[in-house]
Specification:
The complex is a heterodimer of chains A (314) and B (303). The relative contact order of chain A is 0.13. Chain A has a two-stranded antiparallel sheet with strand order 1-2. Chain A has 14 helices and two strands. Chain A folds into two domains: 44 residues, no CATH class; 184 residues, MetI-like fold (Orthogonal Bundle). With 314 residues, chain A is mainly α. Chain B has 303 residues and is mainly alpha-helical. Chain B has a single domain, classed as MetI-like fold (Orthogonal Bundle). Chain B has a two-stranded antiparallel ribbon. In chain B, helix 2 crosses helix 12 and helix 4 packs antiparallel against helix 7. Chain B is globular, with a radius of gyration of 25 Å. Chain B starts with a helix and ends with a helix. Classes of the chains: A mainly alpha (314), B mainly alpha (303). The interface between A and B is large, with 95 and 94 residues.
Chain lengths: 314, 303
């Protein structure tokens, strides 16, 4: 890494012009969505561009009508159920992130400390998994989750679930939160293991041995000594996993049913209608974009670490 | 269980969950897909109930003109986005590799587009391309030009532009990191020998960055084959088949036409295509890495 010196070179004004143009190009479209999400459809369609409009949160109210506690005057029927979808998205993304981190961390630790596989083997398999497009997983996952990964309704556990939650047929993974979470965890594990491995390698062995001398078992050493030291790596891995689980559309749309739809699915469904309500759709898009934007603003260094680790050594 | 056995088992206990999940949810599905690609299989039946048809699915696709068109669109899309993004991204990295104030803010703003959901990216661009309310046509009209039918006649160009907006920053960030980790001695030596800025870029910086650039290009290429949501939201593959990339065609074959066997065979074709490209790029990377190492050696011997 280059050292960040205190003195900054002064540059030609044209250079700053280029930089400003680049910034506008990069965030302009997002800003446009942000502004439009506060406009009524009339204002969007009339094309009164610029900032001459009365901002309103009506679009957000329409989008979240099923969870907001009060009645809305502009709405007599709550057609969009985005509130429920947000809860689904949040549950799925958070649980997959936590599971991936815990499982990936343990695996990475075992790979480093007990020398099963070299780093080359892990990065090779990471690349192989990264090569598989979600569309390729669509067919087999749809088939398996619907037909093979099931518990018969006559078995003890199956009948228990059917009595408890209702429904017909065998109890299958498809249509449940766990079904979607399982595929997200599997998809993200190789990358997470690989990132965490590079952080765990840097933890000095002596520290662990000292803890072991004091009578700590392998699990205690892992949780009390190693975990606190690899926090930056955990942050990078968490953001990447959350981003994929939060943004993913294709597999979620194949595996979810009426009650487990996530936000991207609802956005796509509403976009394919003939008359797009731009204001509302922009508001939902904004709501979906907010968590990743917050992560980016607060943890851009970790994100860049995670991104460059793939290609740039050292 | 004694402590000693427990300690010996620890690594396996630590690895077990990851291995089980990946075997169950990645390897098994991939095997299942390969098996299914030899069968006439529709969503209402379990795979075991379907009939074995041999290579029929593969042959059908091989002779199917719309499959050819999809494959062509995929290759065109991937080749154009990767080459344009590499060109702009590396160019920007070379331009902005200076000690300026606020570089970290700049990088933060640049990574925003790739962090937000592809579905949202598609939504923003579909709005901007809109024939009557979109910002592009409004600007053209106010400047007195004809409006352009972005998502009709120029649909492929439109989705390529959206991808370039979203992913050029990726190349930029990686090339900037590569530039900043170049050996200072080599650059110093070139400067002392009186190399101009252009000469430094062409003879020193680019060749030394080459290994990283190839890996970056490879990662981008792989991801370009995965793009689906942006195109789905913007054009749904149309008009006609003009933007129907393979990933989209697979999902439509499976969900709309309900031909899981054919979709599985198509998935296999896509995987094979990716595998071949990856192997070629990695082999090329080996060659370039060797060359870069030799270049550094020669420069350092010169000093």
């Amino acid at each position: 890494m280059s050292s960040s010196s205190e003195t900054h070179q002064s540059q030609h004004p044209a250079f700053y012009m280029v930089v400003v143009m680049l910034i506008i190009m990069a965030i302009g479209p997002i800003a446009l969505m942000f502004v439009n999400s506060f406009k009524l459809d009339v204002d969007i369609i009339s094309g009164t561009s610029g900032l001459l409009f009365l901002p309103t949160i009506q679009n957000y109210e329409t989008a979240l009508c099923d969870v907001l506690p009060y009645e809305m005057e502009h709405l007599d029927f709550c057609a969009l159920k985005f509130g429920g979808a947000f809860v689904n998205s949040l549950v799925i993304a958070l649980v997959s992130t936590i599971l991936t981190l815990v499982i990936g961390c343990m695996a990475a630790y075992a790979l480093v400390r007990f020398r099963f596989m070299g780093r080359d083997a892990v990065s090779g398999s990471t690349l192989m998994v990264r090569m598989v497009p979600p569309a390729v997983l669509l067919v087999p996952v749809f088939g398996l989750w619907n037909n093979e990964f099931c518990i018969s309704k006559t078995s003890w556990l199956g009948s228990l679930i059917r009595d408890e939650f209702g429904g017909r047929g065998d109890v299958c993974l498809a249509g449940t939160h766990s079904g979607i979470i399982l595929i997200y965890v599997a998809m993200n594990l190789p990358f997470v293991i690989w990132i965490l491995q590079s952080f765990i390698v840097q933890v000095p062995r002596q520290l662990e041995e000292a803890a072991r001398m004091d009578g700590a078992g392998p699990f205690q050493v892992f949780f009390k000594v190693v975990l606190p030291l690899i926090k930056p790596g955990l942050a990078a891995a968490a953001i990447f996993t959350f981003r994929i689980a939060w943004n993913e559309y294709l597999l979620a749309s194949a595996l979810s049913d009426r009650d487990t739809k996530t936000v991207p699915i609802l956005i796509v469904n509403n976009m394919s209608e003939f008359n797009v309500e731009w204001g509302v759709i922009m508001a939902t898009g904004m709501l979906l974009a907010i968590p990743p934007i917050i992560f980016t603003l607060f943890a851009s260094r970790q994100i860049i670490t995670g991104m460059t680790a793939g290609a740039v050594k050292g | 269980m004694s402590t000693a056995t427990f300690n010996r088992l620890t690594p396996y206990l630590f690895l077990a969950p990851a291995v089980v999940i990946m075997a169950l949810a990645l390897l098994y599905p991939l095997g299942y897909m390969i098996y299914g690609s030899f069968r006439a299989w529709d969503p209402s039946q379990a795979l075991g109930e379907s009939t074995f048809v041999g290579l029929a699915n593969y042959v059908t696709l091989w002779n199917d003109p719309s499959f050819h068109e999809s494959a062509g669109v995929t290759l065109k899309f991937a080749a154009s986005v990767v080459s344009v993004e590499m060109f702009i991204g590396v160019g920007l990295a070379l331009l902005l590799d200076r000690n300026i104030r606020g570089m970290s803010v700049l990088r933060t703003l640049f990574i925003l587009p790739m962090m937000i959901a592809p579905v949202v990216v598609g939504l923003i661009w579909r709005y901007m391309y809109h024939p009557s309310v979109g910002i592009f046509n409004n600007t053209l009209k106010s400047l007195g030009f004809e409006s352009i039918d972005w998502l009709g006649q120029h649909a492929l160009l439109a989705v390529i532009l959206a991808d370039i907006w979203q992913w050029t920053p990726f190349i930029f960030i990686l090339s900037l990191a590569a530039l900043q980790s170049l050996p200072r001695s080599a650059l110093e030596a070139a400067r002392i020998d009186g190399a101009t800025a252009w000469q430094q870029i062409i003879h020193i910086k680019l060749p030394l960055m080459m290994p990283v650039l190839i890996v970056t290009g490879l990662l981008r290429l792989i991801d370009a084959f995965k793009v689906l949501e942006v195109i789905l939201v913007m054009t749904e593959g149309g008009p006609g088949l003009s933007t129907e990339i393979l990933a989209l065609r697979i999902s439509r074959t499976a969900t709309e036409f309900r031909e899981l066997g054919v979709a599985a065979a198509m998935s296999n074709y896509l995987l094979m295509m990716l595998l071949v490209l990856t192997v070629i790029m990695l082999a090329y990377n080996r060659v370039q890495e060797y060359r870069a190492a030799r270049a550094i050696r020669i420069i350092e011997e010169d000093i």
